[in-house]
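tool=predict chain=A
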Amino acid sequence: MANPWLALDAGADPVERIRQVGRAHERFVAGEAPRGASMRSVVADSWRRSAVALPGPDATAPIELSDDDLETYRAAHPLASVLPIFRDLLGGLAEDGEHLMAVCDAYGRLLWVEGTAKTLRAGERMNFVPGARWDEAHAGTNAPGTALAVDHPLQIFATEHFSRGVQRWTCAAAPIHDPGTGRLLGAIDVTGGDHLANPHSLALVRATALAAEAFLSSHRPSPATAGSVSALGRNEVVLTFEGRQWRLGRRHSELLVLLLAHPEGSTGDELGVGLYGDEASPVTVRAELSRLRRMLGPELMESRPYRLRAEIQADFRTVPQLLEQGRVADALEAYAGPLLPFSDAPGVVKLRRLVDGRLRSAVLTARDRGLLQTWLHSPWGSDDLEIWEAYAHLLSPTDPARPMAAARIQELQLEYGLATSLQRSGN
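tool=predict ok
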């Protein structure tokens, strides 16, 4: 196809395309790989992700937020301020009796769904309603959910939807980002009939997303006084803000790290999973959050959703930022050790592995003797066999450091039970 994000090429027969993709969908559901000239790779990849996440093609999007929780959440969401722009640019489509306009957050939760009463009722039959979760993991292939997954504007046409109950619809969606940080805020979507599968609908939602980002850029509030958080190489977070300093206990340290990792805000349930995994107790999590908020004060931390109001510089976020800029040496210098090393909170463990893995990979890839030495001389890197081997590979046969490196490699191979198998393979 000329444009992989468009559902139909110019002159394509939509009826024939629906039939071809529908057959491919049924074959895929039966266990065959998605194939055929009619299949777009972005759709095939989405089907694979959907099949892993969902029990089957008849799954229905769950409703996660309702009533007061929904009202409170969306009123505090950054996209609430852009709603007039969405209505101005897409309101005509939402009022024509054939389309729905929808806005979702970065997790695929629908915040607003607008259209005529008749069209809204049709959307309700597939749970396309405010508060429902329409990311791929909960609703399968669909324009807003897949646009979030691939971070690109696109169309999903009829039988390209993974869930059968959605295949009578066609939709076009575009992701929206925070212009200051680049983080994903959500997506804008138009849902309707097959006639939406044209370049104009895709251009329209993309233009609307760009207009929203431009508005947010020009209306960015002045941030509160910046603060800093030290969490690398220590088991208790130290937070500095407006001349005050807090040394937090274990659970509050973990909560603050999780809040910093999700500046867009998190629900109590999401923080509970990050803190305790599947054994999270909503009552315990709310109690911990209440104590942390009382400690920090409402000027620094807010609820519904839970998030920090000020711009806080966190050392575990600085390291990946430096790596993104290609500044490996600076990132290694800023790295004081693993993030909250004794924490077993699932969300913290995941972040720890992510930071450690990215930094270690960058050091290994750089093949710089000084960087490798710095890593190996640290408490967390002294037993890293692969880094020792990379370091030894850079040493010439006459280098005085080579015997020491070879001895250390042999020690680690013995310790890890690798020496015997390596010797056997070399004989």
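The first strand starts at residue 100 and ends at 105. The two ends are 54 Å apart (CA to CA).
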